Amino acid sequence: MHIIKVWDPLVRIFHWSLVAGFTANALVTDPEGKPHEVIGLALFALVALRIVWGFVGSLHARFSDFRPSLGAALGQLGEMATGRRRIHAGHSPLGALMIYNLIAVLLVIGVSGYVMTTYSFFGSRWVEEVHEIAVRWAEISVLAHVAAVVFESRRLGINLPKSMVTGYKTLPATGTQE
Fold first, then answer.
1. pLDDT at res. 121
2. Distances in Å between the alpha carbon of 178 and those of 35, 43, 87, 90, 158?
3. What are the pLDDT digits (tens) for 155-175?
4. CB of 6 within 8 A of CB of 163?
5. CA-to-CA distance for 48 and 103, rounded, in angstroms?
6. Between β-strands 2-5 and 168-171, what pairing exists: parallel, antiparallel or unpaired?
């Protein structure tokens, strides 16, 4: 076993702030209320900050460290199906696709949510539908993300949620590492 530093404080604060804000807007706030709007704008600002950090942040925070690759994601699925264990210091190929998916859908939610508050689009049904569809997709994606984190934590013997709290991954000595 060896311990490596993976997630910097900004990535970890971003992640858990996003979890708290998205959960609050999905389960607690009134979608018609001001707190929902304020939290939504804060989440949009967080995503914008994360995008900037994806270009200038620490090694594993940078988009260049986890480029989206359908081939690599299919390779990871093959590894999972055959019981091979390739351990990734940062995001795995499937994890990378999920991150890009979540950033994109959160941008759609933020833009559509903001547009609904403007005079030009206030009460526009198609904008509301885009917003609602994006929210549903984000909820499905979050559930898939949580399930994948639990599955991969068990499969690889790495406590992935703990690493998003502490910033460090404890990697087992077995398995191929990247």
1. 85
2. 43, 31, 6, 9, 14
3. 999 999 999 999 999 988 765
4. yes
5. 9
6. antiparallel
